[in-house]
## 1
Amino acid sequence: MIRSALPLAVFILMVGLLGYGLSLDPKVVPSPLIDKPAPVFSLPMLEDPARRLSTADMNGRIWVLNVWASWCVSCRAEHEVITKLAGRNLVTVVGLNYKDKSDDATRWLEQFGNPYATSVIDIDGRVGIDWGVYGVPETFVIDADGMIKYKHIGPVTHESLEQKIMPILEELLG
Amino acid sequence: MRILLLLLLFGCLLAPVRAAIEAYEFDSPAMEADYNQLVDELRCLVCQNQNLAGSDADLAQDLRRETYEMLQQGKSRQEVVDFMVARYGDFVLYRPQFKSSTYLLWLGPFLLLVVVLVIVVRRLRAAAKPVGVDAGALADAKKLLEADESDEQGAESEKKAGSEQ
């Protein structure tokens, strides 16, 4: 009896494991940066490249960094969600304009509206590499101590905003 | 002709896939070897089943450039790997590091092999061992067999005698 049940038990175990594997999204790579200090940058602003924004300027503030580009189609899809988040005025939403042409980026913001407090220019993608960006859009939540608390890969949907990002922001805001 | 084509086809399969189009110049053959090994072993995060060497994705190009520049600055291979892991996690490694979270990954196959070997050896031993039978029962069986044989012999000789007649 036990002898015949063993292969079945192994089979069920395998099916369970494989089923769990299927439920995971292989495109989502867990970031090693969670609960680590946000990589520092000092980048020119899109609106006025003579001025720079650095991560040090954001110290003491809870902020969201949204990586976007005018060439990125899914950025357009999440644009209204980012606008909704920024409209709540809970946190500062900074854009990281990733490997984009500034003219295109400016036109994109004019066309769709600008939800960002400011956007900084990462022309060659080096800051993106420091932040472990591998697909635009990506969204980071950084706390007042400059620690990355959350990373969202891909476009933020209304659901992921309410169910994932908002609870973290609310917890940080206390 | 056909054989030549087949050989060519296999040649394509054997050649490492390379999309790298940048012509980087290296100070030394050793550095070039380091570079080639790194872009072979680091995964492209955009097209996840390709390494940096084989991917033409934008990010792969950037990461190749990063790799090249770090080597030019005199950084070691390990330093480049650490740089990538710090940003993208262990996932970038096609050759995972040997550490507590990957012990099972590295040792699992050997563990499985040991388990299978133990099972096989035990089975073989069990098969080779003579089946234990009660001595009394064996003697009874023998007696029965002998009796049967002598019966048969008797019957056969009777038959023979009958046919001769």
Note: The mean pLDDT of chain B is 83.
## 2
Amino acid sequence: MERLRSIIRPVASVPLARHLVVALVAFVVAMAVIGSSSQYLQTRYAEMAYFAIAAGGLTLLTGLSGQLSLGHGALMAVGAYAATLVLERTGGETLADVFVALLVAIAVCAVVGVVVGVPAARLHGPYIAGATLTLAVAVPRLANQWEVFGGEQGLQVSVPRATDLPAWIQDLVWFFTAVEIDQYSFLAYLGWLLLAITFVALANLSRSRVGRRWRAVRDDDVSAELAGIHLGRARVVAFTVSAMAAGLAGGLMAMNVRLTAPGAFTITLSLTLLAAVVLGGLGSLTGALIGAGVLAFLPKFATDLGESVGLSATQAAEVTPVVYGLVLMLVILLAPAGIVGSLRTFLARSPLGSTKEKTT
Amino acid sequence: MQQFLDTTLGGLVLGAVYAAFALALCLIWRSTRIVNFAQAAMAMVTTYIALSLINADVPYWVAFMAAIAAGFGLGAVIERVIIRPVEGKAELNAVILTLGLFMVLHGLTAITFGVQHRGFPAPVGTSAISVGDTSIGITPFGILTIVVVALVMAGLVVLFRFTDLGLRMRAAAFNGEVSRLLGVRVGRMLTLGWALAAAVGAVAGMLIAGGDLVNPAFMDPFVIYGFIAAVLGGLDSPLGSVIGGLILGLSLSYVTGYVGEHLAPLVALGILMVVLLVRPSGLFAAAAARRV
Amino acid sequence: MFAVEDLSAAYGPVKALNGVTFTAARGQVTAVLGANGAGKTTLLRTVSGLVRSTKGSVKLNDKDITRTATEKLTSYGLSHVPEGRGVIAELTVTENLRLGGLHRATGSEPMPVERVFELFPRLGERREATAHTLSGGERQMLVIGRALMARPTVLLLDEPSLGLAPRVVAQIFDLLRGLVQTEELTVVLVEQNARSALSIADHGVVLNLGKVVASAPAAELAADEQLRHAYLGF
């Protein structure tokens, strides 16, 4: 027992080690859950994973550096088109093709992130909201302008079949879950693996010196600047990191949806991501994960609810955005800290929690 | 030459509508320092109300007035119930709140009226006017649009410059506490500001819908174009908003006419960024400090 | 007559006013003095309802106005003049004045803007100027003139000398003294500049840490050397 503790303690006290352990455990649990789920649920889990990656990047940007982006839907579109075009060239038959496509998606979004982030770093509040909202409208429309993007109909996305995957992966999955891997579970595993990696990276970043700088910039940009923090640079880095996350999410989304078309990247997608991070609590990765879960599972629930009260199928499909909108409004009006933040405040106020947080 | 003339006239009509929309945003910004991202959705709702009335054989102009009245009421209720709690709070809160409102209004309209496109009538002709044998690129409805927007503008100028109510509204917007000490009921003035803005937005909605197809998303581009036009004018200046609207309308009309319609939003984004980075307080900042 | 009795107010756990009592007689200037943070401005803000009182009452001609909404006070004849920054900077001089006359004391005659320009000729010269272009002294004249437009019987003045050159302060205080006589005003003058304030005041009230520590005729306060050193800084 004492020996166990002596191993745990140093691990728990080093953030990177702690994050790695948490992520590893979470990933193993996720594998077990995904492996034993139906095809429908596997698709939902895969969806949750890419929403969580995008929401994680967004929550880091908004919660830590104080910049609101309504353009993450557009960045996901950039990632999706980049990945799709790469898969089109390479054929998309091997695992390597998939990773190359995703890396290209991340790289392209990093470039776009810098291009957008540099001017955006100088904006605040409603101005950055309006500018990024314009981005959300403008980017998907470009698909209609140039033929290479396939216009309104979009592009088909090819992904490797389960039998094309390396044997060791098939064996590994079978060993862990006792179920043969197929295309759906493959995408879910892939999504959760990348989600775990992304969150470890984001969590470390927010704990690091960079993250402290972002918080300083968010809380008081004048003081931060006086303390020698280069304001613009800190914001651009934050924007770029979060754009990379959105690019990865977009690439995964393309593979899951198997079709990349402008119609998928509406203003509503960007606002939906916002709803996820606001619901979870700005700045909290746990919150982003919860929000992403809501995004993946709410639509069917809300649509069923709508149909059960007598709405037609097209009407019932509109219940979901109404719920997202209500979530945004109610969280702001009633619990501005979101789910995770409110829980934290609640715990801090209860006699068991510490009282020092109350003044903030 | 013919195409240039057509594009210019089309741009002016478009610009007039953007101007009306930017004006609505500007009214709200001046009174509560909030950008109302739900403005377009509110106007969409009032336009649907007018459409229902028209389909029930109510005369066009009565429905037009009803849309304005509905906008006025909607604006007042929204300010009182939803916006009041976040006034003076962190600006992010108001942004997120109005975006949430945008989604709710959007979805509720789709549930109530369906998502299919529906024809919207116009009170006057919507085909291009001909002079002799050549048709010029403006329709009677286009002319009506410009006239109505000009009337709204004039009405607002009279209200704000020459009436006591307008003076109270401006004072309440600029300095709430001092206005209260002088006996102005500031809360009421802010409600009135939102109501008025929503009424102006309702007019813009009717002008956009006229002779065209409407669905719950038909106003969506105006969320961004109205905002860009208002920012061009500095957000604080009604006159600036109108000029900003015209500049944006003409620019986008030329882009659509000569380069490609799908590039219009990107060009709009470019214009917005240039203005924000080069003249953050708008093109007419110096004038805005002195003008109403 | 204007009377404050046992008035208390707090910002969270901090008591800013602690049982303040004094009376301002009609046609007189009552100076409220004290150091920074003594509670002078809080006193006026509590009287006006901008800060909620926790205890005590405010009476205006025997009418209790403790809980009256801020917006209604001008119609009762009470005008609170915020310090010079209280001009509405975006409006012109004339618009500021017009605004002051919109909600005047019930039953009073409207006051022509020209009358203010007679009192403050400098404002008349700048009538179309936007208020943010005015100098500190001009702003102070504007907020006083704007308050007069409401035809008040009681005028509460918050630090009219703040940031002004001594010559301008003297000029404004002279005008004020004259107004008290011609308009039969009751003036409550909150000032950190005790020497100047006592020179035109009839009565003085000294606050320290939210409490009244002295209340006496102005000449008496000015002669009390110990009090002057301890609380008034001259």
Note: The two ends of chain B are 38 Å apart (CA to CA).
